[in-house]
Structure formats: structure tokens, C-alpha cells
């Protein structure tokens, strides 16, 4: 009897863990932009995340993508967000990515009480008294990054880490003095360009 009972419990447990919950969500991103947060580049990362969410957490996302042309067009994003909510009945939205469009669409998401998640939006100003209450920003806070993380926390170690990593080619140090930077910056950047794909200016 006990064996039988545990068998039933076991089968219930197994069936329960295999159950998936389906959530309909929207994705709002620019089709193609110079910035690295367009649908072309973010889309594949989202696909991987959706697959993992289903395999590991049993959450299946039914995804409606609304991609758009233009450079961070506020009116398009607000229009698409309302269509996603009122016509497609999505429960949450990933994106948009530009700060300007988050400022615009974030208020509609707040009114609709719809969760909105973005990887950037680092220029969106949120005050304690005037929050975008349904918006979650996954990126850094630009103020905190520049003041605290970049200078206080990373500081010298940022350069040291690159130097210490044997797998990376040696970084090119181009010293400059802040006082003379105004006249030098063009030649500094031109020289840096010859050696590197990325630059850290301190
Ligand atoms: C959305 O993205 C697809 C795939 O890149 C593209 O074919 C389509 O034209 C885009 N739609 C708009 C409105 O930009």
C-alpha cells in the first residue's frame, strides 16, 4: 500500500514538474540600428533565453514580435505597445531599448499595469515619487556607473585585468594629459584606431 501510494505521489510529482505554463509576451525592438540593441542582435539572445526558460523552468513564452524602423520612434512604440496589449493580449513586454521610447511607452505600461523589461534605458530618470512602477531595467545606472563603479570600484583594475589576461593581446597604452586633451583627441583616437577594436578612455 505504501509502495503504491508513493508510486502515485511520484507520478503526480513527475507530471507536475513536466507541466509548462504558457505566457504570452511582446517584444518591442528596432529592426536594425547602429546601436547594439536592435532586434537583429538581441533577437538570437532572446531565442536562447526563451528555450532555456521552457527547458529549465517550465515557462513557455508565446512571443509576439513588433519590430520597427526609424531611430527610436516614440509614437510607433506607443502604438505597438497598445496593440500588443489590447489586440494580442500580451501579459508583459520585453523592450523597447532606447531611453526615449522607454520614457514614452513606460508610462503606458504603468497605466496598463503591464511588466516591461529592458536591457538598457540607462538614461531614464526615475525618482522615488515618480516611478515607472512596472518597468524593470536590467542595465547599469549611468550615474552610479560613472561615479562609483567606473572610478571607485573598477578604476585601475580595469586596465590591470586586461593586462593580466594572457589570452588577450597586449593593450596599447597611449598616455595623455587632460590639460592638453582638447588639441590631442583626434590624433589620439586615430592612433588608437590603428591598434584596437575597443578603447577605454580614462
Ligand atoms: C521586422 O523584422 C523582419 C526580420 O528582420 C523584417 O523582415 C521586417 O521587415 C521587419 N519589420 C519592420 C516593420 O521593420
TrEMBL record:
Where does the record place the Receptor ligand binding region domain? 42-147
Q: Which Pfam families match?
A: ANF_receptor
What is the annotated signal peptide range for this record? Answer: 1-19
Arranged from A to Z, the UniProt key words for this protein are: Membrane, Signal, Transmembrane, Transmembrane helix
Q: What Gene Ontology biological process does one annotation of this record name?
A: signal transduction
Which InterPro entries has this protein been placed in?
A: ANF_lig-bd_rcpt, ANP_Clearance_Receptor, Peripla_BP_I
Please list the GO terms describing molecular function.
peptide hormone binding; signaling receptor activity
Gene3D superfamilies to which the protein is assigned, alphabetical: 3.40.50.2300
- Kindly state one GO CC term assigned in the UniProt record: membrane
Q: In which domain of life is the source organism classified?
A: Eukaryota
Please state where this protein is localized.
Answer: Membrane
Keyword Lyase in the entry? The reply is no
The answer to whether the entry has keyword DNA damage is no
* Chief location bin: membrane
Q: Which residues cross the membrane?
A: none
Q: Supply the name of the protein.
A: Receptor ligand binding region domain-containing protein
Protein source organism:
Mytilus galloprovincialis (Mediterranean mussel)
Q: What is the lineage of its organism?
A: Eukaryota, Metazoa, Spiralia, Lophotrochozoa, Mollusca
Amino acid at each position: 500500500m505504501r509502495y503504491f501510494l508513493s508510486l502515485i505521489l511520484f507520478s503526480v510529482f513527475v507530471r507536475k514538474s513536466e507541466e509548462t505554463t504558457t505566457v504570452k509576451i511582446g517584444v518591442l525592438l528596432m529592426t536594425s540600428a547602429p546601436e547594439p540593441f536592435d532586434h537583429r542582435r538581441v533577437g538570437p539572445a532572446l531565442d536562447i533565453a526563451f528555450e532555456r526558460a521552457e527547458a529549465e523552468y517550465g515557462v513557455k513564452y508565446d512571443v509576439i514580435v513588433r519590430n520597427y524602423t526609424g531611430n527610436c520612434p516614440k509614437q510607433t512604440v506607443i502604438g505597438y505597445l497598445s496593440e500588443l496589449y489590447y489586440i494580442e493580449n500580451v501579459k508583459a513586454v520585453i523592450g523597447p531599448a532606447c531611453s526615449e521610447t522607454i520614457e514614452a511607452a513606460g508610462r503606458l505600461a504603468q497605466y496598463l499595469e503591464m511588466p516591461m523589461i529592458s536591457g538598457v534605458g540607462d538614461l531614464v530618470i526615475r525618482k522615488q515619487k515618480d516611478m515607472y512602477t512596472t518597468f524593470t531595467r536590467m542595465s547599469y545606472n549611468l550615474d552610479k556607473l560613472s561615479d562609483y563603479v567606473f572610478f571607485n570600484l573598477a578604476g585601475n583594475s580595469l586596465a590591470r585585468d586586461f593586462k593580466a589576461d594572457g589570452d588577450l593581446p597586449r593593450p596599447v597604452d597611449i598616455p595623455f594629459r587632460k590639460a592638453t586633451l582638447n588639441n590631442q583627441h583626434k590624433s589620439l583616437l586615430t592612433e588608437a584606431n590603428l591598434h584596437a577594436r575597443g578603447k577605454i578612455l580614462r
